[in-house]
Specification:
The chain is α/β, with parallel strands linked by helices. It has a domain of 146 residues: 3-Layer(aba) Sandwich (Rossmann fold), CATH 3.40.50. It contains eight helices and seven strands. Strands 1-7-6-2-3 form a five-stranded parallel sheet, sandwiched between helices. Strands 4-5 form a two-stranded antiparallel ribbon. α8 links the parallel β6 and β7. The longest helix is centred in the middle third of the chain and has 23 residues. The radius of gyration is 18 Å and the shape is globular.
Length: 219
C-alpha cells in the first residue's frame, strides 16, 4: 500500500509554476515576485500584475481552463498584499471610518460557464482576498451582480467596439440592498480592454452604489 501511495505521489504531486517547490501549484512568494502591471487601465481600474508574466499567465490559465480552483488561494493572497495600500488610500479619499467595510463583488459568470468550469474564478480569488483580511475591512457579496446573458468570450472578440457591444446588457443587479450608498470594489481575474469591467460598473452605479473601484489580478 505504501508503495502505491509513493507512486501516486510521484505521478500526481504538484510543483510550483515559479520555483518548482513540491506540493503547491504556485506559491504566494512566486506570485508576488511576478512583473507588476505597467500602469492602471484607467482612473477607476487597477491591476496588480502583468498578464504576460509567465507565472501569472500559467496560473490564470490553470485556474480558468484546467479546473485547478485551488490556485485561486495564493492568487487572492498576493492580490490582497498588492492592493491593500491602494485601497487604504481610497478609504481616506472617500472619507470612510475604520468601522465601514468596503463591499467586494466578483465579476460573475453566466450559469452555463459556471457549470462548465465548476466555479467562478473571480469569486474564488475574492474569497481568498477577504479571508486574508484580519481587520475585517471588506465584506464579500456574491448575490448582488449576475450575468444574465451568455456572451461570446471577450478573448475571441478583438475589436473594442465589438467587445462593448458583446457585453452590453449582460449583467444585472438583482438585489441592491447590500450596495445602496456603499463603496464597492469590483474584482476580476484579468482585464484587457476593460469592457466587462465598464459594463459591471455601470450596472452597480445605476443600482445605487456610491462609488465603484475595480481591481484585477492581471492586465
Amino acid at each position: 500500500m505504501k508503495f502505491f501511495n509513493y507512486i501516486f505521489d510521484i505521478l500526481f504531486r504538484e510543483y510550483c509554476l515559479g520555483c518548482n517547490k513540491s506540493g503547491v501549484a504556485v506559491c504566494v512568494e512566486c506570485v508576488l515576485r511576478a512583473e507588476p502591471a505597467v500602469e492602471p487601465n484607467d482612473m477607476e481600474t487597477w491591476s496588480a500584475f502583468a498578464f504576460h508574466d509567465k507565472v501569472i499567465r500559467k496560473s490564470i490559465q490553470a485556474l480558468k481552463y484546467r479546473r485547478k480552483g485551488h490556485i485561486a488561494e495564493p492568487l487572492g493572497i498576493a492580490l490582497y498584499d498588492r492592493a491593500l495600500e491602494l485601497l487604504g488610500e481610497k478609504r481616506l479619499l472617500w472619507g470612510l471610518g475604520p468601522e465601514e467595510r468596503l463591499i467586494i463583488i466578483p465579476v460573475p459568470l453566466s450559469d452555463k460557464r459556471h457549470r462548465e468550469r465548476g466555479y467562478n474564478q473571480a469569486e474564488l480569488i475574492a474569497e481568498s482576498f477577504v479571508k486574508e483580511d484580519s481587520c475585517m475591512s471588506f465584506m464579500l457579496h456574491t448575490d448582488v451582480l449576475y450575468k444574465v446573458r451568455e456572451t461570446a468570450s471577450q478573448v475571441s472578440v478583438k475589436d473594442r467596439a465589438k467587445r462593448l457591444n458583446n457585453i452590453r446588457g449582460a449583467f444585472e443587479v438583482k438585489d441592491n440592498a447590500p450596495i445602496l450608498d456603499k463603496y464597492v470594489v469590483l474584482l476580476d481575474d484579468v482585464t484587457t480592454t476593460g469592457a466587462t469591467i465598464a459594463e459591471c460598473k455601470k450596472r452597480l452605479l445605476k443600482a445605487g452604489a456610491k462609488e465603484v473601484f475595480a481591481i484585477t489580478l492581471a492586465h
